[in-house]
Design goal:
Blueprint lengths: L2 H17 L1 H12 L12 E5 L5 H8 L3 E6 L2 H9 L7 E4 L13 E7 L7 H14 E10 L5 H10 L3 H16 L3 E6 L2 E7 L2
Parallel strand pairs: 1-2, 1-4, 2-3, 4-5
Antiparallel strand pairs: 5-7, 6-7
Length: about 200
């Protein structure tokens, strides 16, 4: 999906994501309070690339991490900034498929949740390179794991996503780029793809 089309779509969807904030925040709290492969509370800073409504960023901030969050949708950023849970999160407008607006090695962890599946291969490779550039320790994709669901199929139709190509290629792409990969299932249809940044 083109960047402009994606921004327009998520601007339109931002009211629905605002209503989903509490449910998503509860889910992210469950997932990230105790990751067996990487306890995020052992680190001090994180950036949430493609932060959407800010639910995930709020969880990291509550855990004591200095939290930055980026999204290309002004509507989503407006939703995220309105939440009291995000009062300590630093939000910025930016494109995850382009150059991230941060200096090299800015964050201990770089997280991108449920966005890589909507990118084409070239966009994903740019994302991986930028995650590695701005990160110090971990690059984490939180995304689909290959299980199919009605919700996933609906999302792919609405977003014009690249789900099937993503699922076929993500493990090889990450191994090729980072040289390492741990996978932790977080739900029946999602997982964290966790890579150490050298």
């Amino acid at each position: 999906m083109s960047i402009d089309r994606s921004a327009r779509l998520f601007n339109r969807l931002s009211p629905a994501y605002e209503r989903a904030f509490d449910r998503q925040r509860k889910q992210y709290t469950r997932i990230f309070q105790d990751l067996p492969y990487c306890n995020v509370s052992n680190f001090s800073s994180i950036v949430d690339v493609g932060c959407g409504n800010g639910a995930m960023a709020s969880v990291f901030s509550e855990m004591g991490l200095k939290t930055f969050a980026l999204d290309l949708s002004i509507g989503m950023l407006s939703v995220a900034k309105r939440r009291i849970e995000n009062q300590n999160v630093y939000f910025t407008l930016g494109n995850a498929a382009g150059e991230l607006p941060f200096p090299d090695k800015s964050f201990d962890i770089v997280m991108a949740s449920f966005m890589a599946h909507g990118m084409d291969e070239d966009q994903r490779k740019k994302l991986y390179a930028e995650m590695q550039r701005v990160g110090k320790h971990l690059a984490i994709l939180h995304d689909y794991n290959g299980a199919e669901s009605i919700l996933m199929k609906l999302a792919e139709v609405l977003e014009g996503g690249n789900y099937f190509q993503f699922i076929r290629q993500v493990k090889n792409e990450l191994m090729e780029h980072y040289g390492n990969l741990e996978i932790m299932n977080t739900d029946k249809d999602s997982c964290c793809y966790i890579c150490s940044i050298d």
